[in-house]
Design brief:
The chain is mainly α and 225 residues long. The protein has helices at residues 2-27, 31-40, 43-47, 61-68, 76-82, 88-108, 115-118, 121-131, 136-148, 155-162, 167-174, 178-185, 196-206.
Length: 225
Amino acid sequence: MAEENENRHLATDASLLGRAFEFADRYLPGGLVTFYPEFCNSEIAARYSPRGKRSFGYASGIELVLALRDDAGSNLDLMIQDTPRISKEREHFARWCGQIVLRYHEASGDSFATLPKTLPLERLRRLHNELGEQDIEKCLQEIICRTTRHHDQTQLAIRRLQKSITQTDLARLSGVSLRSIQQYEQRKKDLNKGQALSILKLSRVLGCSMEDLIEPEHKLTLSEK
């Protein structure tokens, strides 16, 4: 029941951020080019946490945008009157972009502030052109798979991201501490030398074998020795 509630909150917040991205792209100067990094580096984004109840604290995407852009509220009526309609394709991309940004943040555990570099807007446009017609979860999983190929991720991180599970959720489901999971993924702790029971618990949650999580020795850093 708790997991169902969390998934429901996530879907609601992803939809809200999608509408916020659409509104910003339609009405704000610079559209998503300026709003995407501005949101990711805002206090609103920093306050959003994958732990506990998921909520931005706003009833609509418009409210979120207006809270972020104090100068937009007084000009809202004028913006709506003067701004031309955008294409359905552009509208769909903006909503898709907002949803993917939040879901990637949740699945990866990466802060919003890092996402404009990890998933720059032009890359998101290319991904949308290729994957945008697919179910949002399938899109997310494919983006995660492609992103992990560009980074020296641990096998644990790769498997977790492919399953769209946050570090917090993996800790809760496996019984392995969040701190240990973070240290394993940051290569500050050697999973190869971890307790067999912990590796077994992680592999069961991730749907893989224990061997799939073991790191080749040459990837281990001095901090693990």
